[in-house]
């Protein structure tokens, strides 16, 4: 599905995004690390009959020229984005790192969502374990691995960029993250990850972006650890992929869900990249949240 390119003001500039159209309640779609707004195109195609889905590029991703200089800007931007869209109590949907982004935005009160949908992006560690994990992301070894695996920060010529995009599409069927995704969608997401700089292209995000957002402070109130869910009061759905990053931690996710009313856990047969590989199933979960929101508003009136 092709949407309309938009720019949304935040504290120090604008972030890019895609408005997929539709009418009704607002649904903000937030991608994970290394992805961009295009990853939501097939999910949005199923949602436009029920709501108005908008996807954004996080700082340092997609077509954004804004980058992170600290660990919280990318999720604090969500408050400014919702304000710019003139939405009241939207449904927030986040995949992977985007799952924490929407959770943190709600926990900090920068936005008051009607509901959260967290897609294979839960935070289940305590603070000390989380700090250690984030420290690993700032090592030279991790930087080298990200460059080798995903080409983060790669400066390419036009020809190199086009060749890389074609290669990603050709190899998608055997790629454990993209297997099952529509080839044209893989092409669009990969293409959008390159930002024009002068006569060349830079693969976003850069390693520097990953380092910036992983420099979390141990004493902050809103922290990427399991206690963040104590601050969530709105309905919350966690979608776990049975072959995703958290497949072995289903019981821990279940405990988060059981800790408060209005929460549910939904399993889905997929690898981690759920929005691209299982868009119809994920859209059905999101549409259910939208319908529940509309019904609750109707009852209040």
CATH architecture: 3-Layer(aba) Sandwich
If you average the pLDDT, what whole number results?
95
- N/C terminus separation: 35 Å
Q: What is the domain total for the residues? A: 1
Overall CATH class: Alpha Beta
Strand line-up across the major sheet: 1-2-4-3-5-6-10-11
* Uncertain parts: none
Output the helix-strand order.
EEEHEHEHEHHEHHEEHEHEHH
- Class from helix and strand fractions: alpha/beta
As for the CATH topology, it is Rossmann fold
Q: Helical percent range?
A: 25-40%
Radius of gyration: 18 Å
Topology diagram in text:
Layout lengths: L3 E7 L2 E7 L6 E5 L10 H7 L4 E5 L16 H12 L6 E5 L1 H12 L6 E5 L7 H10 L3 H11 L4 E2 L1 H14 L11 H10 L1 E4 L2 E4 L3 H8 L21 E6 L8 H9 L4 E6 L5 H4 L1 H22 L1
Parallel strand pairs: 3-4, 3-5, 5-6, 6-10, 10-11
Antiparallel strand pairs: 1-2, 2-4, 7-9, 8-9
Helix pairs in contact: 1-11, 2-3, 6-7
């Amino acid at each position: 599905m092709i949407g309309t390119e938009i720019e949304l003001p935040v504290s120090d500039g604008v972030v890019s995004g895609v408005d997929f159209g539709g009418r009704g309640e607002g649904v903000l779609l937030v991608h994970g690390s290394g992805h961009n707004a295009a990853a939501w195109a097939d999910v949005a195609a199923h949602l436009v009959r029920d709501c108005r889905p908008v996807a954004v590029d996080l700082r340092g991703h997609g077509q954004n020229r804004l980058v992170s200089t600290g660990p919280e800007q990318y999720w604090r931007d969500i408050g400014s984005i919702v304000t710019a869209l003139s939405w009241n109590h939207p449904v927030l949907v986040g995949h992977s790192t985007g799952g924490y982004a929407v959770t943190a935005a709600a926990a900090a009160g920068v936005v008051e969502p009607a509901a959260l949908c967290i897609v294979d992006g839960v935070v289940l560690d305590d603070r000390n374990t989380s700090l250690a994990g984030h420290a690993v992301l700032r090592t030279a070894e991790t930087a080298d691995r990200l460059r080798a695996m995903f080409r983060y920060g790669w400066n390419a010529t036009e020809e190199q960029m086009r060749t890389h995009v074609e290669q990603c599409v050709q190899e998608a069927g055997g790629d454990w993250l993209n297997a099952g995704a529509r080839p044209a969608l893989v092409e669009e997401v990969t293409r959008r990850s390159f930002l024009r700089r002068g006569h060349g292209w830079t693969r976003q995000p850069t390693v520097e972006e990953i380092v910036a957002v992983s420099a979390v402070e141990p004493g902050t109130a809103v922290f990427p650890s399991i206690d963040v869910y104590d601050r969530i009061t709105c309905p919350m759905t966690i979608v776990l992929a049975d072959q995703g990053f958290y497949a072995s931690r289903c019981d821990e996710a279940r405990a988060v869900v059981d800790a408060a009313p209005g929460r549910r856990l939904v399993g889905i047969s997929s690898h981690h990249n759920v929005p691209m590989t299982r868009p119809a199933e994920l859209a059905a979960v999101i549409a259910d949240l939208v319908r529940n929101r509309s019904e609750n508003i109707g009852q209040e009136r």
